[in-house]
Amino acid sequence: MYDVWVDSTRCQGHARCFAFAPDIFDFDDEGYAFIPEDRSQHAEIPEDLRLAIANCPERAIQVKDNT
Ligand code: SF4
Question: What is the pLDDT averaged over residues 21-46?
Answer without folding.
Answer: 97
